[in-house]
Amino acid sequence: MTFTQLSIFALLAEQKSFTVVAHHLQISQSAISHAIKSLEQNWAVTLFHRDHNEVELTEAGARLLLHVQEILNISNQLKQEISDIHGFHSGTLRIGSFGASSSNVLIPLILEKFSIEYPNIEVFIKEGTDKDIAQWIQERSIDVGFVVLPDERFDTFSVMNDIFVALIPKSYELSKQSAVSLQELVEHPFLMTSAGSQSHVTEMFRKANLTPKIKCHFSQILTIINMVNNHAGVSIVADMALNQELMTLFPNVQKLPLSPNIKRSIGLAVKNKKQISPIVKAFIEIAQKV
């Protein structure tokens, strides 16, 4: 059993394709197959169900993957710690990001300063929903992830506060108000985000004992804004995901605060703060100063 074999196993479990993994690692598919067979023989288990080039983890493979990811994570921490001792500050950083707020706003701001201090660190951004981020943190397939606080499952670090706002077509009478309530929004077709804010938008309606008339679900905020711009309905999004330059592209959309105002706190989460590498610690410290 080697770290190379473990890395191939973890990557194949994620990509589910010999071709993709071979291309990513710049090695032959036969080398990938040989590495997996060696592990299966060594552990006396079948790790994958094979269907031509596509693969799926077996139950045993899924159980062992969790331990393999732990080993690879510790190996990465060790390498970064050694680099830090020698003053090289080299290594990799894997960040989980949900929605436009973290991907389009926070990460560019943080990485701008981070890359100046740590120019030799290779950064990987993995984007998904808030549920994806939680799973990736648990699996240690990312080093640190953006979450909405509080989140008792992980060790967290507060980064920034944000508010939710309503997007309303200017053709609606609601758009002429200074603020809008959830009660007023449920009277119109609702465009629901299926990205990072979905669970929080759903929860705010539940707490108010209201049910929005959901017309469609969209994963991209640009699609939501464009639909509102075309008078298809109203929506609620995180204010941080919007900026003045973006809003000028959609002249028929009015952004209004909610009444009462609904806030959220964005933070960074790790599985165990006692086990984070110097690079992850540095990233968190820079994020908290942005």
Residue windows where pLDDT falls under 50 for at least 5 positions: none
Q: How many DSSP H or I helices?
A: 11
Oligomerization state of this entry? single chain
CATH topology of the domain at 161-262: D-Maltodextrin-Binding Protein, domain 2
Judging from the principal axes of the Cα atoms, what is the shape?
globular
CATH-assigned homologous superfamily of the domain at 161-262: Periplasmic binding protein-like II
End-to-end separation in angstroms reads: 43 Å
Order of helices and strands: HHHEEHEHEHEEHEHEHEHEEH
Average pLDDT rating: 90
Radius of gyration: 22 Å
Structural class determined from secondary elements: alpha/beta
Major beta sheet summary:
7 strands, mixed
Question: What fraction, in percent, of the residue positions are helical?
Answer: 40-55%
What do these coordinates show?
It comes from Acinetobacter wuhouensis. The chain is 45% helix and 25% strand. It has 290 residues and is of the alpha/beta class. The protein has a domain at 161-262: D-Maltodextrin-Binding Protein, domain 2 (3-Layer(aba) Sandwich). Strands 3, 4, 5, 6, 9, 10 and 11 form a 7-stranded mixed beta sheet that branches. A two-stranded antiparallel sheet has the order 1-2. A two-stranded parallel sheet has the order 7-8. The longest helix has 27 residues, at 59-85.
